[in-house]
Amino acid sequence: MKKHAGAIVLFAVAALTPLVIRGGFFLDSLVIILLWGAISAAWNVAGGYAGQVSLGHAAFFGIGAYAAALVSARWQQSPWLGLLVGMLVSVAAGLIIGYLSNRLRGPYFALSTIAFSQVLLIVASRWRGFTAGSEGIPVPFRPGFWTLGLGHVAWVYVALALAVVYYLVEVYLERSRIGYQLAGVREDEEAAEALGIASRRLKVFAIALSAALTSIGGSLWAQYIGFVDPFYVFSVDLSVRFALHTIIGGMGVALGPFLGAALITALETSLRAHFSGIKGGYVGLYLVTYGVILILVVRFVPEGLAGLAARVRTRTIRAHA
Amino acid sequence: MLTLEHVTKRFGGLTAVREVSLEVAAGELLGIIGPNGAGKTTLFNVISGFQRPEEGRVILEGRDVTGDPPHTIARLGLTRTFQIVKPFGNLSVLDNVMIGALTRATSVAEARAEAGRVVETCGLTAHAGARAKALPIGLRKRLEVARALATRPRLLLLDEVMSGVNPTELAGIVELVRRVHAEGVTLVVIEHVMAAMMRLARRIVVLHHGELIAQGTPAEVAADRRVIDAYLGDEFVLAQA
Questions:
Q1: Cβ-nearest to A180 among B74, B80, B102
Q2: What's this model's pTM, rounded to 2 decimal places?
């Protein structure tokens, strides 16, 4: 229980916030933080636990976003159905890319994932008849849970539920047989093989699971934001964002992606709010801050914010002993 | 238990292992010696499934495992250690061993209990919670053996687990290898530390330029002219006498 104190506090604060704060701006930031946190947790399944550092997760996010938007805008069906379709397509895509890039390691694997997401970007932005091309797809707002036309408060709880479920998936990966075996594969694939672990199959499994979770996040995001733009949902920027949240928060640590997402999104939102308008000249400042934080984390706390918290805790225990 | 039939492994124009045939009986402790580049580790790679031989067959307990992936062969009861140790660096010693134990155990709890026993057998209990990459080399060699043992192999290939460690550690590892063998695990051991090898193995095969040039008891091998020329050198013979 103690190990999960951080997560319990974080999720409890999120759950209580709508009861205290009713401001649209705050709740909007909260929904985004929870969605980004959950999707980064999905990235962590492949990148953190299995060591398959992808810079193309926008591919799965985009598939989810498009699936939900197309199903609700084009075919007038429930976006939940679209979410399911997107998830299945993403699993298939994850299996394919996992299988194809199986022998690639480190930077080569990352490059292949970028290429994959870029291919999808081209398809989505050119296939006008199906995806509406580069214009993107506006998602119609139809009030109700089944149609995912919800207010801010309801969205907080939808996003929170997603975040909690994904956190639990991560915790499972830390304790289960498959989680330990993945850690072995991540640390040394040959040693894992010599111990009887089918490393390739396990990597593909992790990528497919991560893809499915990412896709669900993408579907919900599309319904929340109400617009799907191919140049955003399939962008390398977005892929990098999922990775950075997790790297800054702590790779292979369940709470890491949520901490990273909270810090980065909060900073980004406030800096953008402060330096827009009259002081428009500084509008890019949040990117600079982003970079500085990343450098500081990688230099001084390579294990991420979650690792920093653990380090402080051990030091306090030692000081008390 | 293990039969190699005319195994040949080439890398481009270089033949690393040439036409090696070998029989390892159940319960045996077989030593493999030879100069650097003789093809000893390549032979291990072929047996354990990391490299597919161009010619020949690898037969484990009557089953042809040539070209099978390492994890399949490990599940059949043959595993190996690596000359350049490959610990799961960021994990604890206990978790390292537990990942090996998971191959046979039905639950994580069972694997953890088994790992605890193996860690104790291998004299690593005091370091069970330490990160593997923080261990000194002697202990990392032990961890390499412990992790392999946790998969409950019937045949274990040890690649230079006694090299590069200090004399105290060496004595401990020799003792550990003896105990593992006494418990019924068939062992094939690559080693450069001749003194240890002469005491441990009852049969030694000698590789030179990828070919099996001699085999026999330690005494026979040490007296073999080809072995002295290729590997041991006359100083060794003088020192023995």
A1: B102
A2: 0.90
